Amino acid sequence: MVSGEHLDPEIERRLSAWMQRAQDGERAAYERLLTELIPHLRRFIGARLRAGEEVDDVVQNVLISIHRDRHTYDPSRPFGAWMYAIARHRLIDWARRRRRRLAREDLEPALVEAVASSAAFLEPSALDTLQQAFARLSPVQREVIQLLKLEGWSVRQVSESTGRTESAVKVSAHRGYHTLLKLLASGTDDE
Amino acid sequence: MTNEALIRELVADAQPVRRLAPPGLRCVGWLALTLLLLVASTLALGARGDLAQRSRELSFLLDGMCLLLLGTFAARSAFQLSVPAQRSAVTFGLPLAGAALWLVLLAARGLGALEAGPGVPCVLRITGLGMLPLLVGWRMQRRAAPLEAGWTGLFLALAAFSFAALATRVLCARDGVAHLLFWHCLPVFVLTGVATVAAGWKLV
Question: Which of A147, B17, B37, B145 is most deeply buried (CB count within 10 A of its CB)?
Answer without folding.
Answer: B145
